[in-house]
Amino acid sequence: NQSSDQGTLFLGNEKELSTPEHMVDWAIINEVRSFVDIWRKLPNSNQWQVSPATARLLKHWRHHNFSSIRPFFCQLEAIETLIWLTEVAPSFAAGKRLVAHLLDVNKKENPGLVRVALKLATGTGKTMVMAMIIAWQTRFDGRSQEG
Length: 147
What we know:
50% of the residues lie in helices and 3% in strands. The protein is built from 5 helices and 2 strands, in the order ββααααα. The chain has a two-stranded antiparallel sheet with strand order 1-2.
């Protein structure tokens, strides 16, 4: 359910591994997802605000005539979210705010270790997403236009 009224999710359990201060803020997640959805629908790759290497990968993953199984939508959504947060969000105010929020939360939870988590259900192909991330990170270094 992608409803904007998802509220919050408390991951409590008997060992108290998750406390109220570790609640998931669905408003932030839904805001990111809505920006990624708008960005994904841009028809012209020149509007994507990504490196040429990233644009080529996105075109391949989205439109290639695969001889076997195509990437699932959730796999594309996962890599698109990482790409959007890394390459697109820092270019405008709302995106900068979201990235700053994620960095602030991360700093509180994981001092000295920046990380982004993706949640995918069992059987959705997390290994494929990892391969897509590796391919993207191999081509994109964040400094050059050619990645």
